[in-house]
Design a protein that fits this description.
Elements (H helix, E strand, L loop, with lengths): L2 E8 L4 H15 L6 E6 L8 E2 L3 H4 L5 E6 L6 H5 L4 E6 L13 H17 L5 E4 L2 H9 L5 E3 L15 H7 L4 E6 L8 H14 L4 E6 L7 H13 L4 E5 L3 H10 E6 L8 H8 L4 E4 L4 H5 L4 E3 L4 H13 L1 H17 L2 H17 L15 E4 L10 H12 L3 E6 L12 E4 L2 E6 L16 H9 L3 E5 L4 H10 L3 E5 L7 H11 L3 E3 L5 H24 L1
Parallel strand pairs: 1-2, 1-4, 2-3, 4-5, 5-6, 6-7, 8-9, 8-11, 9-10, 11-12, 12-13, 14-15, 14-18, 15-17, 18-19, 19-20
Antiparallel strand pairs: 16-17
Helix pairs in contact: 5-16, 6-9, 7-8, 7-12, 15-19, 16-17
Keywords: Transferase
Protein name: Glycosyl transferase family 1 domain-containing protein
InterPro entries: Glyco_trans_1
């Protein structure tokens, strides 16, 4: 069969590019004709890629196209007019808010990419994600057939001998803490610097931090990192920039531990690469990181530099714990052997190659008329907003409550109501761990996508929450918001709410929740009556 792949850009050395090329090698080894199509590419890839604009002419009704989506692509029209079957492969989209203040272009591109995720839905037959975390967002977006595709890693690519010159420089008795990845705001490399500063000053003066990955000093975030380094003042921080395979091998071979403080990962390949190279991993448990770790390494739910620095110190000072961590990591890597994963990938794709896909489509549930967005409903059931959500749902039976899952609860491939606090609640996995009150609640890409995919009216219970701030610009015209003046809302979030909601922003009176509920019920009910009259006309 002809099974091709479409990406926005084919880059050499990044996770998506590596994945696309490895999938192509698997497909060809199984006897399929397989090409890679892209709008742009690195010079190193020019012999491996065809121009995306040529695909509609070359596709046949028997072709299968794997559409890789992770960033703004502007490829929806091309996909819509192409013949053959199409399957989405979702790598996840970084929330736009993680780039705010540093990269306006990335903010706009991430928002556009999420709109494209909804626009792609009617043009594909099914969808895959590389983690349950990402798959939950596809379900929230209304994709009827969603499955998790194992991430096929070419482990042999990590077996390059270390660069001898860099190895000699790094192998000097220092404890080397390593991070690998692009220096972008979502990776929170600044937190890596803060953790290392605490580690060096409190536990290990003879230590070094290695940052291996692109860093643009002239860009806002790159300049911020260099300034932060000077401000914090630790010794031996090295920004290595982009490294080749041999230099990367030297970094891992000399590393005492691998540290990640990233706030959002659809699947964290460098975490598994560190495990493969027998380097113990300490990672902040955001998004799909715990799922990638698979119970191995050390996952922290604290962002406090001294807490994470203590984990690095314990790993160094407790040989038994270090060995236990390494043993668990080796087991995790063994479960992802190339042979096993290749077989799982083939099984996942096989259902689409000769039939209509792996089972019937999931029938979409009836859309509610009103979305009550209350992120802390289950985590903080006695908070004023949670109590107001219960009262609103009691008075508005055609509404549903959307809330965050608790810590440790796995993402779901089927979203539906669960009873919590005496009301049916749709739960969504948070992008970051939910901390104890009064710590601010995180947002959830899945929850945000569910609201954007809905046509119902929206009530944002807590306009200072991360979810409300992310949603107001896109659903402001059909939303109301509630502000708790006695809570922890800051002036910036209040101004944003006033800008997007105007008179639909309601002040919460903690002593009289019934009065607030009356205002919202009356507003929502009158809106429904006007809509019904307009429909009759």
């Amino acid at each position: 069969m002809h099974i091709h792949q479409l990406v926005t850009r084919l880059a050499w050395g990044d996770a998506i590019g590596n994945q696309v090329r490895y999938l192509q090698s698997l497909l060809r080894s199984w006897g399929h004709t397989s090409e890679i199509y892209a709008d742009s590419w690195d010079d190193a890839c020019r012999d491996q890629v065809r121009a995306a604009r040529s695909y509609p002419r070359e596709a046949t009704r028997d072709s299968v196209l794997l559409v890789h989506h992770s960033f703004e692509s502007r490829q929806v029209p091309l996909i819509a007019r192409s013949r053959g079957r199409k399957l989405l492969v979702y790598h996840n989209i970084t929330p736009a808010r993680l780039f705010e203040g540093y990269d306006r272009g990335a903010v706009l591109a991430c928002d556009a990419a999420r709109l494209e995720l909804l626009a792609l839905r009617p043009h594909v037959d099914g969808a895959f994600a590389y983690s349950r975390f990402s798959a939950e967002e596809l379900v929230a977006a209304g994709y009827p057939r969603v499955d998790v595709l194992p991430f096929a890693i070419d482990w042999n690519a990590f077996d390059t001998p270390p660069d001898p010159a860099l190895m000699a420089e790094l192998d000097d008795g220092c404890s080397n803490i390593l991070f690998v990845g692009r220096a972008v705001p979502s990776k929170y490399v600044d937190d890596v610097l803060r953790v290392f500063t605490a580690y060096q000053r409190l536990y290990q003066p003879k230590s070094r931090l290695l940052i291996a990955g692109n860093i643009h000093r002239d860009a806002p975030y790159g300049g911020f990192l260099h300034g932060l380094k000077d401000l914090l003042g630790p010794d031996r921080i090295q920004f290595l920039g982009r490294v080749n395979a041999a230099q990367l091998s030297a970094c891992f071979a000399s590393a005492t531990a691998y540290l990640s403080m990233s706030r959002h990962e659809g699947f964290g390949v460098p975490l598994l690469e560190a495990m493969y190279r027998d380097v113990p991993v300490v990672a902040y448990g955001a998004a799909a990181v715990p799922e990638t770790m698979g119970g191995a390494g050390l996952t922290t739910f604290s962002r406090e530099p001294m807490d994470v620095a203590q984990l690095l110190a314990v790993l160094e000072r407790e040989p038994a714990l270090r060995q236990q961590v390494l043993t668990a990591q080796r087991a995790r890597v063994a479960a992802l052997s190339q042979k096993a994963v290749a077989a799982q990938v083939r099984t996942a794709l096989q259902g689409w190659l000769g039939g209509s896909g792996p089972g019937p489509a999931v029938a979409p549930s009836q859309a509610p008329a009103i979305e009550l967005v209350c992120p802390g409903f289950s985590a903080r059931p006695e908070a004023p907003m949670s109590r107001l959500a219960r009262e609103l749902h009691r008075r508005l039976p055609d509404s549903r409550i959307l809330a965050l899952r608790g810590r440790g609860e796995e993402p779901a491939l089927a979203l539906g109501p669960q009873t919590a606090g005496g009301a049916p609640v749709w739960h969504f996995t948070p992008d970051q761990p939910v901390g104890p009150a009064p710590e601010p609640l995180p947002s959830s890409s899945s929850l945000e996508t569910a609201v954007r995919a809905s046509s119902g009216k929206v009530v944002l219970l807590g306009v200072d929450t991360a979810a409300a701030q992310a949603l107001m610009a896109s659903v402001g015209r059909r939303s109301w918001g509630v502000r708790d003046a006695a809570g922890a809302s800051d002036e910036a979030s209040t101004e944003a709410a006033r800008h997007h909601l105007g008179p639909r922003l309601v002040e919460l009176d903690r002593t009289d929740l019934d009065a607030v509920a009356n205002v919202l019920v009356q507003a929502l009910s009158s809106k429904k009556k006007r809509g019904a009259r307009d429909a009759r006309r």
